[in-house]
């Protein structure tokens, strides 16, 4: 990816590294993501706008791609609505196929 999908910055994208670095980090290439690591942490971040993306390998052999979903404002939702909405978004991210885009997602 050569530019941020949100702000189009060509200089703000950084690879996120996790854990405790054993020395100085090249801040033009990397940003530290913290010490807690899971299997779905974002791997890219834009330091200009704060966008974070997750690398997803959907089809073996085709490499990785970034998948984004625009989120609704959950501050007006109750707990049950938030839970339902989170499940819907997760299904869109986990189950969508290559080339399949809806109104709430971008590639």
Q: What average pLDDT do the residues reach?
A: 76
Poorly predicted regions are 57-63, 98-107
Number of domain modules: 2
Per DSSP E runs of 2 or more residues, the count of β-strands stands at 6
| Content of β-strand | 15-25%
- The value of Rg in angstroms is 16 Å
Which percent range fits the helix content?
10-25%
- Neighbour order of strands in the largest sheet: 2-1-3-4-5-6
What is the H-and-E element order?
A: EEEEEHE
Distance, first to last CA: 11 Å
What does this structure look like?
This protein has 107 residues and is α+β, with helices and mostly antiparallel strands. It has one helix at residues 79-95, and strands at 13-17, 30-32, 44-46, 52-56, 65-69, 105-106. Helices cover 16% and strands 21% of the residues. The chain folds into 2 domains: 1-56, no CATH class; 67-107, no CATH class.
């Amino acid at each position: 990816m050569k530019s941020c999908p949100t702000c189009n910055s060509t200089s703000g994208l950084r690879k996120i590294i996790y854990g405790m670095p054993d020395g100085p980090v090249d801040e033009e290439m990397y940003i530290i993501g913290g010490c807690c690591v899971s299997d779905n942490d974002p791997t890219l971040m834009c330091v200009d706008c704060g966008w974070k993306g997750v690398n997803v390998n959907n089809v073996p052999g085709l490499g990785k791609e970034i998948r984004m979903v625009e989120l609704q404002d959950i501050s007006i939702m109750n707990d049950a609505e938030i839970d339902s909405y989170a499940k819907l978004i997760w299904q869109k991210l986990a189950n969508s196929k290559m080339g399949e885009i809806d109104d709430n997602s971008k590639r």
